[in-house]
UniProtKB/TrEMBL annotation:
Pfam families: ThiC_Rad_SAM (PF01964). Catalyzes the synthesis of the hydroxymethylpyrimidine phosphate (HMP-P) moiety of thiamine from aminoimidazole ribotide (AIR) in a radical S-adenosyl-L-methionine (SAM)-dependent reaction. Belongs to the ThiC family. Substrate binds at N69, M98, Y127, H163, S185, R186, G187, D226, A227, C228, R229, E265, Y292. Its EC number is 4.1.99.17. GO terms for molecular function: phosphomethylpyrimidine synthase activity. Its cofactor is [4Fe-4S] cluster. This is Phosphomethylpyrimidine synthase.
Length: 435
């Protein structure tokens, strides 16, 4: 039996080895998973050439997955150091790495990633085209933009963010309906500038069928980019954002007609009270295609703490149906993240994803919490450290303020409610003051 993409296989009733792995990990029946993949409501991004991959499914009924952005840049060009960051991110639970390299020979790093890294690998070919062609933006031809997509597919990239939705019509609506922060998507701003300077249609929109043919050949999942994602609370759910989303809905249908898997990228900055409605609008317009959210950042006043502002938004979004969260680090809006920022960003995003999975009732999601609760009840500190999302930090905090009594902590000491209640229920005397 032959098939092109995971979606094509599912539509033919073929359970692939990737589907088997995903079903086992998610504790889902294979046939049930197959139905969701066939409908496009779960995607399994796995390029046929990415042989080192551990495949993951992305869909609102599965565990929420997280993405970490890394890559070579002018300020951080040590490839081995960047690979070390990738390894640490995967060890900390990132299911996906987006390679946003923007300096030097980006292909070498990309190929190394798909050769060695088990995470799902994503890229943004628009960034890479600017680096690769070494010429003025407006000199890049439509064919050259498409050639970069093919190159990334050949290199084994599992999903690509492509800003197809910002076509000339959307660009016109964006210009007519003023917004505070204009375009904050890097890829979106590049494509908008190219369209304005050349007067041409977005080549990824105009030649969308060619893009889909490439994706189908290698089984690259399209991550339909949100060039008009709001960059501040005031722009949340505005005309440009919704106009682009409607186009993404049409492009989703066209991709599915060619068995190409799709994700939809989403906001952005947005007040908390708009997030659930946005998830509903996306699900309706894009027929339940997995939603990949970049935040949402729920307040604009916290530079240095945007891993928190985005974790709040990410948790609400995932509980309301988003499937995939892009991490945000404390360095967001300030500088390139360092190793500590990457760690803080991953942990905040993992917490958001996990909290949402509990709220959604994802099978087995609360087991981890249950184990922690049992350890807490027994005041079993070693077990608590082992179960903590950041064991080193939990251990360090306790060691920094050792309690007088080893079985309690320095918060309440002899007043330890857990210890005293355990003792009373065991029939012991509790006196507190003379202990
Ligand atoms: S001392 Fe207080 S905070 Fe610490 S474990 Fe006991 S009840 Fe909890």
């Amino acid at each position: 039996m032959t098939y092109t993409t995971q979606m094509d296989a599912a539509r033919q009733g073929i359970v692939t080895k990737e589907m088997k792995a995903v079903a086992a990990y998610e504790q889902m029946e294979e046939q049930q998973l197959l139905q969701f993949v066939a409908k496009g409501q779960i995607c399994i991004p796995c390029n046929k050439k990415h042989t080192s991959i551990t495949p993951y499914g992305i869909g609102s009924m599965l565990r929420t997955k997280i993405n970490v952005n890394l890559g070579i840049s002018r300020d951080c060009k040590d490839m081995d150091m960047e690979m070390e960051k990738v390894k640490r991110a995967v060890d900390m639970g990132a299911e996906s790495i987006m390679d946003l390299s923007s300096y030097g020979d980006t292909r070498v790093f990309r190929q190394r990633l798909t050769r060695e890294c088990p995470a799902v690998i994503g890229t943004v070919p628009i960034y890479d085209a600017v680096v690769y062609y070494h010429k003025a933006l407006k000199e890049i031809t439509a064919q050259e933009w498409l050639d970069i997509v093919r190159m990334h597919a050949e290199d084994g990239v599992d999903f690509m963010t492509i800003h197809c939705g910002l076509n000339r019509h959307t660009a016109q609506r964006f210009k007519e309906n003023k917004r505070l922060m204009n375009i904050v998507s890097r890829g979106g701003s590049i494509m908008f500038a190219w369209m304005e300077m050349t007067g041409q249609e977005n080549p990824f929109y105009e030649y969308y069928d060619e893009v889909l043919d490439i994706c189908r050949q290698y089984d690259v999942t399209m991550s339909l980019g949100d060039a008009c994602r709001p960059g501040c609370l005031e722009d949340g759910t505005d005309i440009a954002q919704i106009e682009e989303l409607v186009t993404l809905g049409e492009l989703t249908r066209r991709a599915w007609e060619k068995d190409v898997q799709v994700m939809i990228e989403g906001p952005g900055h947005m007040p908390m009270n708009q997030i659930a409605a946005n998830m509903e609008i996306q699900k309706t317009i894009c027929k339940g295609a997995p939603f990949y959210v970049l935040g949402p950042i729920v307040t604009d006043i916290a530079p240095g703490y945007d891993h928190i502002t985005s974790a709040i938004g990410g948790a609400i979004a995932a509980a309301a149906g988003a499937s995939f969260l892009c991490y945000v680090t404390p360095a967001e809006h300030l500088r390139l993240p360092n190793v500590d920022d990457v760690k803080e960003g991953i942990i905040a995003t993992k917490i958001a994803a996990h909290a949402a999975d509990i709220a959604k009732g994802v099978k087995g999601a609360m087991d981890w919490d249950h184990k922690m609760d049992q350890a807490r009840k027994k005041l079993d500190w070693e077990a608590m450290f082992e179960l903590a999302i950041d064991p080193k930090k939990a251990r360090r905090y306790r060691e920094e303020a050792k309690p007088e009594k080893e079985d309690t902590c320095s918060m309440c000491g002899n007043f330890c409610a857990v210890k005293n209640t355990n003792r009373i229920l065991d029939g012991e005397i509790v006196s507190i003051f003379d202990e």
